Structure to design on (104 residues):
């Protein structure tokens, strides 16, 4: 007999800040590294500078990502990392998606 999981199928509570394709890829990548510079995020997401900037700003505004601007030699560098709040949101997001898929 198959378990009916429709009572727990709450797709409306998916975190919309994370769920967008580009933001999802940013969060996934940052969850696997301590920090990443803008160039690495651009490479791994495959988006333009402007598009990446917009999505990073949305994640920053939500408190999920911290971006630190610094200089390496004479070149500017933006280093991004998940905040504690962002890591917790990522784990909640993964748990929620697994619940929707019947994995937990």
């Amino acid at each position: 007999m198959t378990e009916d999981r429709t009572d727990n199928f709450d797709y409306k509570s998916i975190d919309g800040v994370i769920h967008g394709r580009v933001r999802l890829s940013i969060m996934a990548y940052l969850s696997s590294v301590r920090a990443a510079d803008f160039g690495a995020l651009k490479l791994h997401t495959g988006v333009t500078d402007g598009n990446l900037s917009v999505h990073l700003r949305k994640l920053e505004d939500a408190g999920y990502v911290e971006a630190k601007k610094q200089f390496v030699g004479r070149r500017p560098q933006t280093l991004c990392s998940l905040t504690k709040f962002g890591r917790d949101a990522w784990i909640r997001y993964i748990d929620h998606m697994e619940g929707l898929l019947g994995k937990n």
About this structure: Strands lie at 36-37, 65-72, 75-82. Helices lie at 16-19, 21-32, 38-45, 49-61, 84-100. The chain has one domain: 16-100.
